[in-house]
Amino acid sequence: MKFKMIAIDLDGTLLTDDKKISKEDLKVLKSAINQGYELIIATGRRYYSAKNLIRDLKEDVVIFANNGNIVRNTKDDKVLIEKYLNIKDFHTLIREGRKRDLFSIVHANGYDKGVDLFIELNKDDSRYYNYIEKNESRCVQVNDFLYGNIEKVLTVVYMGNKDKLRKFKFEMDSLYPHKYRFHMMENMSVQGFLEVMNPLGSKWLSIREYAMGKGIFPDKIISIGDDDNDIEMIEKSGLGIAMKNGTESVKKSADIITETDNNQDGAGLTLKKVLRL
Q1: Which helix (DSSP H) or strand (DSSP E) does residue 80 occupy?
Q2: Which residues are CB-neighbours of 136 under 8 A, at least 6 positions away?
Q3: Distance CA 109, CA 275 (A)
Q4: Does pLDDT of 133 surpass 90?
Q5: d(C-alpha 208, C-alpha 206), whole Å
Q6: For the chain, counts of helices (H) and of strands (E)
Q7: In DSSP terms, which residues pair with 203 in a beta bridge?
Q8: CA atoms of 129 and 158, how far apart (whole Å)
């Protein structure tokens, strides 16, 4: 068997635009699992959300949530890898964002306590760009992130003007080198979407750590994605696949580009051909 592991992104890749997994993709993934390939999910989403979205798969898989900062097995929800923002660096980030009139949403590892998200403004505040659903039950509003006793911070998300967020990213990199890792997402419905996390937080670094622990080398991994937070895993895997609907940067980094998009079974059809399922 040339490959042993398949790492696949969710939004814009495995999920259709209405956040479903197509019947064809489900069929292909189940076939791959039955033939001995290990399927892992690598997503920017929180674990709770990702686990719910793949429920139709009806398989025990490892989810690399929050861009690999928290890794759990859906079989028992056991934490396999965890990476958090240093609390001092988290507070610095919040202060610097406020200076620029930027408002954030904080993802934390509170799955077992029923809380994943922290906000300072109301859920429906326009500065959150409908990021939080009205019926969201795992979100807590605090008066001030600096005094809210928030622990185990995984990711801090900023939304808004793309140029403003890019400038913020550049300035933070210059002021505090090696303190943060940034993902500027391009394939999103909002204009600008910036994720900030632990400097070692990335899908690929966590995938590599997990795979090497099982004796699986990078050249035995297939990675599939559509956005810029997928570039590293696509470039460094044995086979990198970019979605037809992916960003130009992702496509340039890939070995293969799917012939169809995420609404037309792009990931499944390509895996079927590559693995001869």
Answers
A1: strand 78-82
A2: 117, 123
A3: 35
A4: no
A5: 5
A6: 8, 14
A7: none
A8: 10
Q: Is the dihedral of CA 11, 16, 18, 23 positive or negative?
A: negative
Sorted by where each starts, the structural domains of the chain and their CATH numbers stand as 5-82+202-275 (3.40.50.1000), 87-197 (3.30.1240.10)
Give the separation between CA 106 and CA 266, rounded to whole angstroms: 32
Tokens 């209405």, located at residue: 18
| CA-wise closest residue to 112 among 72, 57, 53 | 72
Mean pLDDT rounded to a whole number for the chain: 95
Who's near 252: CB < 8 A, 6+ residues apart? none
In angstroms, rounded to a whole number, what is the distance separating the alpha carbons of residues 128 and 132?
Answer: 7
Q: pLDDT by residue (tens digit) across 143-155? A: 999 997 899 999 9
Burial of 271: CB neighbours in 10 Å, binned 0-12, 13-18, 19+: buried
201, 69 Cβ separation under 8 angstroms: yes
pTM, two decimals, is 0.96
Q: Which amino acid is present at 102?
A: L
Surface-to-core class of residue 186, CB atoms within 10 Å of its CB (0-12 exposed, 13-18 middle, 19+ buried): middle
Task: Supply 275's token pair.
Answer: 């693995």
55 Cβ partners below 8 Å, 6+ apart?
none
Report pLDDT digits (tens) over 50-74. Answer: 999 999 999 999 999 999 999 999 9
